[in-house]
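As noted in the main text, all predictions were made from sequence alone. Below is one such record, for Twin-arginine translocation pathway signal.
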Amino acid sequence: MTETRAVRAMTRRELLSSGVAAGAAMVVGGGFVASATEAWAMETKALQPATMATLIQMSRDIYPHDRIADRHYALAVKAHDEKAAGDPDFAKMIEDGVAGLDAAAAEAGHGSYLGTGWEIDRVALLRAIEDGGFFQTIRGGLVVGLYNQKDVWPVFGYEGSSAEYGGYLERGFDDIAWL
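Prediction:
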């Protein structure tokens, strides 16, 4: 299933005025998701931009780290868009999963998942689907996609692999004076 999208240049004014606001910090437009507050944007290949915006917010709700920028969450879920580009069944599973999440949010009176203003309410929506394949796919991808980004390691105090330097023992990790 190949989808052809007409692409035309947008002026900055058109981008800012015609993009549908998604979440508090994302702008969704024709084939892209961009931050409204940071300097990053991401083009989508197979998934709808609104779907990607939902996945970014969902990722932040699954693994919340206030000190990690949205761009890192966007990079983590980009792999799902790339996989969806070559696998129509996977694309359908992701799109259907987001549609189901939006339907549950609407039923709860929030309009959509992105329209759910409070984190506690979004987490309640996620808890309702946490045993399903869609949720587990997103959560599992985040473990590698988010935490393997070298740019986020300093946030957690992780200095990276030490194996190529002879291990941790001889690099200051053997100076425990209280033991």
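Confidence is low (pLDDT under 50) at residues 1-8, 14-24. The chain has one domain: 21-155. These features were considered when defining construct boundaries for the mutagenesis experiments described in Section 2.9.
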